[in-house]
Predict the structure of Twin arginine-targeting protein translocase, TatA/E family.
Amino acid sequence: MGLLRDIGAPGLILIVLGALLIFGPKRLPELGESIGKMFVSFKRTVHELTDDDKKQEKDQ
């Protein structure tokens, strides 16, 4: 998360404006939803993998 701290508010504003120009205001909510679903899926997978590792260590 160090990268997000380095960007700052002006950088985030530029990123949002760039996304608006590239994708348009109508597609931006769809894009945000897909990115959110991707992060949730990634987080779930990481938790499953760490739970499996902990279970294997406990069994040994």
